[in-house]
Amino acid sequence: MSRISTRFAALKEQGRGALVTFLEGYDPDPATSMAILRGLPGAGADVIEIGVPFTDPMADGPSIQKGGLRALKSGATLAGVLAMVRDFRKEDAATPIVLMGYYNPVLSYGVDRFCTDAAASGVDGLIIVDVPPEEADEVEPQAKANGLDLIRLVAPTTDEARLPRVLAATSGFVYYVSITGITGTRSASTADLAAAVPRLRPHTDLPICIGFGIRTPEQAAEAARLADGAVVGTALVDTLAASLDEQGRAKPDTVRKVLDQVRALAEAVHGVRKAA
Amino acid sequence: MNKPLPNSFRQGPDARGRFGQFGGRFVAETLMPLILEVEQAYEAAKKDTAFQAEWRRLLTHYVGRPSPLWYADRLTKHLRAKAAPGMGAKVYFKRDELNHTGAHKINAVLGQILLAKKMGKTRIIAETGAGQHGVATATACALFDLPCTVFMGATDVERQQPNVFRMKLLGAEVVPVTSGAATLKDAMNEALRHWVAHVHDTYYCIGTVAGPHPYPAMVRDFQSVIGEETREQMMAAEGRLPDALVAAIGGGSNAMGLFYPFLDDESVAMYGVEAAGKGVETHEHAASLTKGRPGVLHGNRTYLLQDEFGQILEAHSISAGLDYPGVGPEHSWLHELGRVNYVHATDDEALAAFQLCSKLEGIIPALEPAHALAYVLHQAPAMPADKIIVMNMCGRGDKDIFTVARHLGVKL
């Protein structure tokens, strides 16, 4: 069983929802980013998404755009992000890691080589935002051959006719985009969150995580209550950004501030008791 | 001899929206259902005679088509005077700068706005570089009483003030985009992001033959009116097809429109002229086909200016309309097949051509076709005098006089 399946199965057994965190790799610099990554499992992250920085992130709002540019300025590359995962794996063999990003850096690295290297580095799943199921043959054979889950986004615009096709192309977990929009620009309402499971559950047994628009511990808890997990990204990137000095450099308390927020989110998410 | 099948260059795209390996639909899931809806609506519109008749009516009575095919006599003589004896091709201009709004952009905009109305969309968004596509879209939206938002890089807002004011006069909202280098690429990112958040009521009117399928094919089809007219007008004027076609390439919509109807005429050579900025040997140019390599951006696989890690590079050109690090996917395909020759002209060459054309023909070209003309100045003298070149004069230069004055050190 993959790390992702194992983790969700264990959470289900404990009657808990998952906290999935997102931060850009190398934001604001490799050392700080690595320190945060190392601290995430201890702070309560159940699944870790690492953003692979790209110059033109089409589905991201201003916060994650800026995070990506800070990361690129500090030298982020796909190879560098894979190296971070390898370092992380030396200490943590259990926490699933998902790389999230856009296709062009992967294409440039070489899809075959990337999937081989990602699996060897300890990556468990991929979210490639701009490769929809229609273009899945670009990456699916290589990802499958290397045991990497391909996690797909399902949006409010994904209609009933299309849903089975999207879900059939998904493994690991389903990422439900709770708002019609880009990351971090609008807060999801309870009604937005509540729409996810009734729409998706008839079509899939995979765990369902809700993201895009979840900022607070209350929202995260609500998402975890309604679905199998909550994804928080922009709120963490905002906290990181607010902790930097005028030149955009990390300050001594940057790592602590981000991890404190993860702890608060985790406490709320894990406080929700679910039927095992 | 193994010859390509008839029509082989005119069969794209395939069902996946691909021209060979190029094109496709590389968008986030939120947009995917809408892209499919646009495709369906466009396929229906193609066969809808009422739709086509309405578009043609607008082209005739609102845009002023057909645009003339002009024999540039003085320019031809000027080039022959410097050419070897018996050399110096006849140069014609396809005068799309005479269209309402001053460029070819309006051809495809009117088609897309009619489509948006057919789809029941009530808001229009667009990206723009030089502002020509933004002006065309704002114009069509005024005509059809649709709210219009144009995304424009803040850098371009600065250097294209007259067009910004025009768009506002036409009732459009102009949103300056400050991310990245604040030029056309960033305007397109922002338009796509806005569209993701407003898919239910909004149509994205793309200005060039790029973006996810069906945009490259759709914009090409609408712009093909340029090549269809040229073919007819050339038969009337000379009784034969031209020997060479020349057009500037940013995203490549005016070039695709001129080239497409001639792609299967083997005797017709084609030259797409990219912007070489300060030179293709420098880092400041916009020559994606000459210096880039295939990648995925803005919904399609195509040639892109990118670094070794797949990060997109900033393009540079004196022409805001060519200042884009990608190119339409069909051009990438035609480039690899060798059907079209992709060449380039620098900022300085375009500036020289801009001035020469103004003085010799009484036509102030936009900086975009000034790049095409720069190549004509080089190519025509190398061709025998009985050969014919058609260059697409795809826009007029009124919008560029401030930029040109600045480069020439003139204070207005």
TrEMBL record, chain A:
The active site is at E49 (proton acceptor), D60 (proton acceptor). It catalyses: (1S,2R)-1-C-(indol-3-yl)glycerol 3-phosphate + L-serine = D-glyceraldehyde 3-phosphate + L-tryptophan + H2O. Keywords: Amino-acid biosynthesis, Aromatic amino acid biosynthesis, Lyase, Tryptophan biosynthesis. It is an enzyme of class 4 (lyase). GO terms for molecular function: tryptophan synthase activity. Gene3D superfamilies: Aldolase class I (3.20.20.70). The alpha subunit is responsible for the aldol cleavage of indoleglycerol phosphate to indole and glyceraldehyde 3-phosphate. Tetramer of two alpha and two beta chains. This is Tryptophan synthase alpha chain. It comes from Roseomonas nitratireducens. The gene is trpA.
Automatic annotation (TrEMBL), chain B:
SUPFAM superfamilies: Tryptophan synthase beta subunit-like PLP-dependent enzymes. This is Tryptophan synthase beta chain. One of its GO terms (molecular function) is tryptophan synthase activity. It is an enzyme of class 4 (lyase). The modification N6-(pyridoxal phosphate)lysine is found at K105. Its EC number is 4.2.1.20. HAMAP family: Trp_synth_beta (MF_00133). Tetramer of two alpha and two beta chains. Residues 65-395 form the Tryptophan synthase beta chain-like PALP domain. Keywords: Amino-acid biosynthesis, Aromatic amino acid biosynthesis, Lyase, Pyridoxal phosphate, Tryptophan biosynthesis. The gene is trpB. The beta subunit is responsible for the synthesis of L-tryptophan from indole and L-serine. It catalyses: (1S,2R)-1-C-(indol-3-yl)glycerol 3-phosphate + L-serine = D-glyceraldehyde 3-phosphate + L-tryptophan + H2O. Pathway: Amino-acid biosynthesis; L-tryptophan biosynthesis; L-tryptophan from chorismate: step 5/5. Belongs to the TrpB family. InterPro entries: Trp_synth_b_CS, Trp_synth_beta, Trp_synth_beta/beta-like, TrpB-like_PALP, TrpB-like_PALP_sf.
